[in-house]
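Sample entry was shown:
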Amino acid sequence: MVTTCHVIELGLTPYGEALELQRRLAALRVEGRVGDLLLLFEHPPVITLGRGGQHAHLLVPESSLSARGIEFFNVERGGDITYHGPGQLVGYPILNLAEHGRDVHVYLRRLEGILIETLITFGLGASRWIGRTGVWVRGGKIASIGIHVSRWVTRHGFALNVDMNLAPFKLIVPCGIKSASATSIADELSRPVAVKEVIPVLVQRFEASFGVDLLPTSRDVILGAIGAAHQGVHSTYRPLEAHGPVLSTASSVP
């Protein structure tokens, strides 16, 4: 049976705002107030350090980052240090793995597979690096993955370098791998590539991998779900009409 997963394209969004949004939605997913979600972003320049990372992998003083226009966050995801910036497609799946196999390692491999298949569609020979999470093209890292799972609900996710300034990666040891260098779809194809060009391909691969039907959903609907939850209202999604999903609410009190 194909289930519904709502995909929300949120565009260029400050990292802190996106972090708070996914934390709130993950909490609602744990409570069963919302269904599975896939949040898609680009972020202004930001460096994030995962719970397994080393601050020494930031190669410049943290205090110097603001002058470069780069934010810095310590976050709860797995993995080490990475950079996000405009022209990178960042995806945060909010999924209940109890409905998708209850296996975190399989989930990570699925995310890698989705990214690899997306890149193959663009004619790039992407692959895994045994023992390392992420995706590589000709020895360059093109996609990073770092997740957090609590009560089987996921947050954080993947970052795919589409067409971005790669220079800030030199400020860090990407993912803690000293020999790693960053690459992008645009660099590998030697042509400009828009994030909007990549999203439909990735969405199709995501649907096939997780056996879901991705339905476009607006930011307003998602914020409505959060607002309803704060008011003690139980929220669910139901697809109606040709216009897509709407938020239906029903009191949580019998």
